[in-house]
Amino acid sequence: MTTTAASPGFARVAVLGLGTVGSALAGALARAGVPVVAVETDEASLARGAERTARVAGDRASAAPVTYTTRLEAVADSGLVIEAVPEDFALKADLLRRAADLCGADTVFATTTSLPVTRIAAACGRLPRTVGLHPVGHAPEGGCVEVVHTPVTDPAVRTAVEDLVRRTGRTPVAVSDQPGFVGGGLLLAYLNGAIAMFERRYASRDDIDAAMRLGCGLPLGPLAHADLIGLDTIRDGLRGLYELTGESRYLAPPLLGHMVTAGLLGVKSGRGFYRYPQEAPARLAAAAPAVARPVRSVGVIGSGTMAKGIAEVFARSGRRTVLVARTEVRAKEALDGVARSLDRGVHRGKIGTADRDAAVERLTGTQDMAAVAECDLVVEAVAEELAVKRAVFRRLDRVCRPGAVLTTSTSSLPVVECAVVTSRPESVLGMHFFNPAPVMRLVEVVGTVLTSEEALGTVRAVCADLGKHPVSCGDRAGFIVNALLFPYLNGAVRLLEQHRASAEDIDTVMTAGCAYPLGPLALLDVIGLDVSLQIQETLHRAFQEPTLEPARHLRHLVAAGYLGRKSGRGFRAH
To answer: What digits encode the pLDDT tens for the residues 233-255?
Structure first.
């Protein structure tokens, strides 16, 4: 192959198809100084694709020229030909076969498909010199590209393509040719779950996206992310994966097909789940509650990490706060823990000494449940065991004044199970804080079929006053965040146990490809593998979906005592 200093192995690259993926690749190559010939089927598509490509390429002086044409014959002198047309096997195979007839024996071919690369490579007659080139996630800067090799791919070809990907500022990850590769399967299943959640009206568009951004630190919510990728691209990818695997997590909800048929494709068409540029997916605005009861005093039941964090949040907000633990010793230890946290806040400049002292003064601890008798709001934050929580709510029902709102901080258990053991189920709901509670802005507000609008409004108003962002959802296992997050995490563990990729590569695909703050396996280590297993088991029991069965490897690690960071070892040593 001809070589240049700008692009190891490839003097010129041809890109066939200038849709979302093709224009992004063509623009990135030109930006990196690689001459590109871009081919489209007609002049109108070529003009639209050229505009998208130019936006990606920018106006750097070092950028290489892009030649735009509708003539396939223009690919003849290219060292690499990248196919980026719609997800149709016959179309892709025919196009690559025709390109192969025009090119020399040394030309390398790449397909952007999520379909089996080996099958397409065989159809075009260039098996050893064909790879998959699968961009993951559309990260705003850099990104990750899966370089998919077949059983007979020439190692030198794979190396040359990986080097080219690096030249564009993206991270190449070598993966084998199996359904979904690594990032494609994980990401599409996650986005599909969010679309299905929205279709069922379980939560609003804005609440779904805000929950995943604030609860997981993601740069985009899943529905905004789907708009960025393109709803037609997602539909085609899901269709291909479902045909290959038969797994229900890849079965696209009807809404997705309807939107594509209607031309609502996302950013590229100006409208998808959002309108562009009129609506801003990044804007976070919680709706004001219509009716709310005053909340001047708060009770927190529990002495663990979440209870201490929640008590600190309320004490800092100016409300008298009572923490109830099982023993006086535990109550004293919890208060000491809050005091240390406040001291750290002073040291880091997050809170003043006067505010710290005032918060400590407002917070008291006891083992006597009767201490919350006059509280306006009580938050239960004990162990994630239904029997324990129900026992707490029975006692709260006896001691709390009429009109008090009772909430549970459960992350996965049915809230209604706690409500029905009281004489006031209309005043019981979920108030799911995220750890660490003083830092994380998200609170999932979970109403049951019995919860009154006044109780819901009260909790939403309190959240807003605390500087938190409440999102509303129904009383279903996992609520929003865990219902979307843990199937994604479980899928990553399955990839590892099937030896599809290393832990490092799995995490790199999602951090580099989607700009996620942590890869799925690193995140599991942070959460705790035992906690993660418990949540996954809850989701599996609730939905009876085979793909929600906890991965065997996760069970084995927990049984061995490898629980993540807190034990010193999980998917990695810490």
So the answer is: 999 999 999 999 999 999 999 99
Q: Which token pair is 202? A: 């379980």
Beta strand 297-301 pairing with 171-176: unpaired
Contact (Cβ atoms closer than 8 angstroms) between residue 561 and residue 567: yes
Largest CA distance in the chain: 84
Distance CA 255, CA 277 (A): 22
Q: How many CB atoms lie within 10 A of CB 279?
A: 14
Instruction: Look up residue 371 and give its amino acid.
Output: A
pTM over 0.70: yes
The answer to whether the CB of 479 falls within 8 A of the CB of 465 is no
Q: Nearest-CA neighbor of 301 among 289, 292, 310? A: 310
The per-residue pLDDT for range 381-428, each reduced to its tens digit, is: 999 899 999 999 999 999 999 999 999 999 888 999 999 999 999 999
By annotation, the residues acting in catalysis are 411, 432, 444, 482
Query: CA 132 → CA 116, 151, 177, 207, 360, distances in Å?
Result: 9, 12, 8, 36, 59
DSSP state at residue 288: P
CA dihedral 345, 347, 352, 353 (to 10 degrees): 110
Q: How far apart are CA 446 and CA 459, in angstroms?
A: 10
Tokens at 309, concatenated: 């964090």
Full 3-state SS string of 209-238: HHHHHHHHCCCCCHHHHHHHHCHHHHHHHH
